[in-house]
Amino acid sequence: MSITSPIIERHPSGFRLVYDDVYVTDIDDLWQAITTAERLARWMVDLTGDLRLGGTWAVAAQDDEPSWATGTITACDAPLSFTSTWHAIEEEPTELTVTLEEVEGGTRMLLVHTGIRSIFYGAGWQTYLERLAAHVAGESFLPDWDARFAALSPEYESRFGSI
């Protein structure tokens, strides 16, 4: 498994996506990149809230639009793992679990998103995780998230459709 080849499987509440890859940074840096609002904003989205056990978060609202996703941190063992609810607008809540492990060459990150019903999570997560890999490696990445998402979507539509 990797960013470009996740496991996609049926789950009683929808689908489960599993991304598993090694990032060329140490565990503390990767933990900071995925759990601090300032670092998340560099590669993913602006968040508001409290990213600690029991804390709630929301994707920062843009202009007059509401936040498109919110959640609650339901488990946390820094810097090894966290679990959060993930509630996108007009969707049922899902569960996101991230686990980190130091390995030769960097830090292995296992991201499991369970209960998704929209196939668009596949291309979305791959786009975000590619940006995370570039961020922690100190490399630049294309700022056009929408173009990358659009390029990846047909393959994910095919993969989800074959399950």
Order of helices and strands: EEHHEEEEEEHH
Helix and strand composition category: alpha+beta
Overall morphology:
globular
**Approximate helicity band:** 25-40%
* Low-pLDDT segments: none
Order of strands in the sheet with the most strands?
1-2-8-7-6-5-4-3
Measure the end-to-end span: 17 Å
Average per-residue pLDDT, rounded, comes to: 93
Strand content: 35-45%
Topology, number of strands: 8
Radius of gyration: 15 Å
Helix count from the secondary structure assignment? 4
Profile the largest sheet: 8 strands, antiparallel
Structure report:
The protein is α+β, with helices and mostly antiparallel strands and 163 residues long. Helices cover 31% and strands 37% of the residues. It has helices at residues 27-35, 37-43, 120-136, 145-161, and strands at residues 7-11, 14-23, 47-49, 56-59, 69-77, 81-88, 94-103, 106-116. Helix 1 packs across helix 2. It starts with 6 loop residues before the first strand and ends with a helix. The model has no long low-confidence stretch (mean pLDDT 93).
